[in-house]
Fold:
Amino acid sequence: MYWDVALWSAGIWAILSLAAGQLTEQEKSTIVDMHNKLRSQVQPSAAFMQKVVWNDTLRVVAEAYATKCIWKHNPDLQKLTLGENLFVSTGPFNATKAMVSWFGENVDYDYENKFCPEDKMCGHYTQMVWANSNTIGCASHFCDTLKGLNFKKATLLVCDYYPPGNFKGRNPYVSGKPCSKCPENLPVCEEKICGNVKTLSDQLKANMN
Structure:
């Protein structure tokens, strides 16, 4: 029996891609952890930045839209009061690479003037570091064809945010000394991010009281 190596390789890749169409628990954790890590590194520094947490309801919304395989934002975002980021990969999906790609748009964003050149993309970055967006839910889907891009056999990542960001004429956060403007309900500063408890043990103690 003779094997067609090219066909076999393509078949294995298709199977692996389909298996990777749904985010693993590790990938979900990576997305949340990378958001918080990168949000703490914004320049200029943020006087108020809050931690992002996973939300499964947002994941369901993202998943329903990702299956449509369209390289365009969900037209229902305004009605749903959500923000959204998209990422596409034609190779094995890498959650860290996606997050770094979005954050990398900061090189083209002028914070002081709230400006991004017309030939550049900054919206993924600004949504990612929008201080008031504190919940996220994401989903990936393997698309045979991606409408809106000349891509085939690609993995589409959709991340939805609440509350939404990217309001025209506004910066994604207020600059200043890290945590200098933490509100009363988020009084603890941890890794330059405002929170309500510092450690898991503090959280457990709070839940016991």
About this structure: The longest strand covers residues 135-146. The chain has a mean pLDDT of 87. The CA atoms of residues 91 and 154 lie 7 Å apart. The beta strands are 53-54, 83-89, 135-146, 151-162, 188-190, 193-195.
